Queue: 3 jobs
Job 1
Amino acid sequence: MNSVSIDSEKATSAALIGRARRMYEMLSEALASAIADLRDEEDQDPAGARARLDLIRSHHKALQTVIDIEVSLEKRSREIGGASEGVLDLDAARAEVWRRLARLQGTGGD
């Protein structure tokens, strides 16, 4: 079994959630700008509307990712907090990542 210390896992988790939050903030700003542009436009072209719809979908996906990561980290934190050996099973984590990637690929997600 592969393992890492809890401190290393916490640092990795903090970096991961930090990147996810920054991505969400960038998408939020882009969405707010797109909404402001939408309010200013009198006539909407289909390509612009489609681009805004894609932006909204990206925003929703980023928000869901941030929420999923936070829930996962909280759950893992509770599980690890009760562990006496203080290690993380990387094989299990790797398997979960592959399952999630396969699920995203199956649904056509990015």
Job 2
Amino acid sequence: MQMVSIPDGLQPWEDRSDICKLTLSILQIMSGKLEVTINKKDGDKVTCVIADACMGWAIRVAKNMEIRRAAFWPALVTTLASMLFFQKLIDDGIINNSAINIYQLVRKTCRPIKPEPDAATIEAAFQVVIEAEEASRVTDWFICNSTTELEFAPFSLYPKLLPILARRLPRAWHWLRIITREEITSKIEHLLSEQTIRDKALDIKDKIRSSVNEGACSQRNLNNFIEWLTEKDTNAKDQHSP
């Protein structure tokens, strides 16, 4: 298995904090870049493409090139099921295909997003939802980081979704329980009271924010994050060494 980094279409000096601009560039540019990347693999034939479901264009490229494909969803399957259900609601005439109207409908059941996205950003985000729904219909596998015991309803609604978390749960299933708000608050307060942990978290937060503002690519951000963690752990061990 090989992880591949693909250009998002924006130049290094362009503003990647502009979500609308970045999303549209990804949707318009990256599918072509992926196809070029696959064709350049002269000696190493690509036999399967695994992509985040929000990158539905990658699944479509793999289908067009007759390559096996697997979509992956790391978040709640309930959220994915809501996204996949939009098209049926539109087809049944319950809602129209206006991204703005759908956003207003979702907004009634969710906490408000701050800052409030503009119409162009909402339309761009809705295109990602459409791509994910299309990917669900053409992918060979749709694997999800969950289990039927935790999210029975969405897995029942979409039998094609494959839970992969179940294999890791049985031995520890008896440890699963509802964690109260008081327990979470207590743990967070304990962590924040530890000055070393607090300083480390604030330092990493500042470095990540600085890296993102500089317009770094995702791969470099990830490498920097790992480097910062390793650096901190190494320094901590050195301080405790005799």
Job 3
Amino acid sequence: MHETANIYAFYDMPHLLKGIINNLERNDYKIECEIISAVPKLSAKHIHPGLFDKMNVKRTAQGFSRSVYAGTSEHDVNEGSTRQATANFVLKINLMFDMFNSRSLFDKNSDKRALNMKRDGVHYLLTSRLQQDPLENIFSLIRMRYGYGRTPSAKEFR
């Protein structure tokens, strides 16, 4: 490896969100009724997702949105409370999701804009392209073309 090469690490946010949800469920998390009523966008599928609901990245991301942060933090003014810590966690996850899921150079939300790198020959970076899902979608199309039950040969793949 070249001594001056830069290495950048990025989160795969859809899979990170799914991991967070699985860990919360494994540790038997509880959500208070006041929080649910304060965030009308949350549904039962957000709180207790079924097997296929967990795979829905959009719904999972909604559970870590700014509106969930606002609904969670508005009911508690105590700085060191568990509810405030949860609200801060939700806000951090929301920010990370926006930053590592950029799809445009220009967005009214600056956190959702492509990374402006201007170094190493890269001018900008759409971070959503660094996730595993686009690659999984390509392989899904290939499997669909050749039948779901078999793996295409290298010649067919080409």
